[in-house]
Amino acid sequence: MKTFLLSSLFFALTFVSFGEEVDEAVIEGVLIERPDGSFLEFLLVESKIQCNFYNEKKSPIDPDVDRIAVRMERTQPRVRKVLAVAVPEAGEPGLRSPIFVQLPHLFRAYLSLMRDGIDDPVEFYLIYYPQDLTASEPIKIFEPES
To answer: Which of 6, 91, 107, 117 is most buried by a 10 A CB count?
Structure first.
């Protein structure tokens, strides 16, 4: 009887571990929920801007925009503006900017999501980096017209 219980338990654990499940990605940056239910993650990787895209289940997906224009305004020690454009980079997920962001990494970032052939941004967000500078969620300033 003991052997039967142990083998049943082993079979149940094996069946559960091979079931259809998608691992949720580890989100390290500021997470923004988009109008279509997907997510945009903004973070700095090796002091360079990285923007990753996730579906509703927070699994990585390919970007649906061609570039992201980023304007950063430092909050300390003095106000300084930095402009950058995040674009696809070979071998890297999401969109990445080649511009090195100097320390300190405390700033407001205005994100304009752009598509080729369209002059105006399709989405626009204001975030604080890092997120714990404020208790608020990212602010959605612009929503595209349907």
So the answer is: 107
The residues, any chain, with a CB within 8 Å of residue 123's CB and separated by 6 or more, are 34, 35, 65, 111, 112, 113, 140, 142, 143, 144
Integer Cα distance of 93 and 62 in angstroms: 7
Candidates 92, 45, 42, 93; CA nearest to 71 is: 42
Domain locations along the chain: 24-142
For residue 18, the model assigns a pLDDT of 47
Shortest CA distance to 51 belongs to which of 88, 99, 5, 104? 88
Q: What was the pLDDT predicted at 37?
A: 94
Q: Please indicate whether residue 77 or residue 15 has the higher confidence score (pLDDT).
A: 77
CATH topology of domain 24-142: Immunoglobulin-like (2.60.40)
